[in-house]
Structures are given as structure tokens and as C-alpha cells.
Specification:
Layout: E1 2-5, E2 16-22, E3 28-33, E4 53-56, E5 69-84, E6 88-89, E7 94-102, E8 106-107, E9 114-115, E10 120-124, E11 128-139, E12 143-144, E13 148-165
Antiparallel strand pairs: 1-3, 1-4, 2-3, 5-13, 6-12, 7-11, 7-13, 8-13, 9-11, 10-11
Length: about 170
């Protein structure tokens, strides 16, 4: 699950916060994970004081349950291009997830990447308009992803985060 907010979040039972990326007054990008059990509720609720939280939940199969996440890497900036230097996987068949926030829809594409929940949108009374955009790509061999970049319609503070999911 990825979420963006300006203040700390109350996390539902069973979820673990893996990391955050900070971009100043525009908010914090949080990444959580949970291993699903035999019976899961139809929804989960993250809460915080005040308004303004957006998020997406992704179902991932085949992750290593002992060490599910290999690494995380983030970047911040104030520009039209949402850029990240990329990550390097250390095992074959790793899944890389990359998120960025934006104050408008994104343009451009990441060659070989699949959008996952691209353009999840929320209008928050204290944060203004916000989008969170996720992308995924499986890598058959260990190695570098190369740099990642998509463009927003306007220049603003942004944050990106990439994580590598270890396979079983």
C-alpha cells in the first residue's frame, strides 16, 4: 500500500510500514506491506488528523515472506520531470515498484513498465489536488533499472520511491 499525507498515519492491524519518502510541506509518501491471510476484510482504513490522504493497495503474488523487500530508494525535487536515478536488483526475477506524486496528471511513459493504479486522485481540503502514480516491472536478471522519469503538467515539489520485491 502506498499513501501520501502531511501528518503521521494510524496503521491498520497487520500492516508494517516499510519506509517513507519526504518532500517537505507537500507531504510524505508512505509504503506499507502485509502478508494476506485466509480471510481478509473488504477494506482497510488508514487515518490521520486533518484531511488529505490518498493511497493505493497492490496485490503482489510470489514475494519472499522472510525478506520481502530488498531495498528502497527515493528522490525529491521541484520540477516538471519526476525523476529517480533507479535501483539495482541483486537477485533474478525481482519486481520493482516505483511511485511518484504529482499535482496534475502525468505524461510520458516508462518503457517496459506497467502502470498500476496510475492516476489515483484525491482532492484534499488542506493539501490541494494530489495524484499518486505507481508503476511496476519484473526483472529476469539482477541489475540496474536505469533512470526513471515521467512529466507532470506543471512544476511543483515531488517525491519518488522505488522498492525491490524479492521473489520466493
Amino acid at each position: 500500500m502506498t499513501a501520501m499525507s502531511r501528518s503521521p498515519l494510524a496503521t491498520p492491524s497487520g500492516w508494517t510500514e516499510y519506509g517513507t519518502g519526504y518532500a517537505g510541506s507537500d507531504g510524505t509518501l508512505h509504503v506499507y506491506y502485509k502478508f494476506a491471510g485466509g480471510s481478509e476484510p473488504s477494506s482497510y482504513a488508514w487515518t490521520r488528523s486533518g484531511a488529505g490522504i490518498i493511497g493505493s493497495i497492490y496485490r503482489i503474488s510470489g514475494a519472499n515472506t522472510t525478506t520481502p523487500i530488498q531495498l528502497k530508494s527515493g528522490s525529491t525535487g521541484n520540477a516538471t520531470a519526476r525523476s529517480h536515478s533507479g535501483v539495482t536488483t541483486t537477485v533474478a526475477n525481482a519486481l520493482v515498484l516505483w511511485w511518484t506524486n504529482a499535482n496534475a496528471t502525468l505524461s510520458g511513459s516508462l518503457s517496459g513498465w506497467t502502470s498500476c493504479g496510475d492516476g489515483t486522485y484525491a482532492q484534499a481540503t488542506d493539501d490541494g489536488d494530489a495524484y499518486i502514480n505507481g508503476f511496476r516491472r519484473a526483472y529476469a536478471s539482477a541489475g540496474a533499472t536505469g533512470s526513471l522519469s515521467v512529466n507532470s503538467a506543471s512544476s511543483a515539489l515531488f517525491m519518488t520511491m522505488a522498492i525491490v520485491i524479492n521473489p520466493v
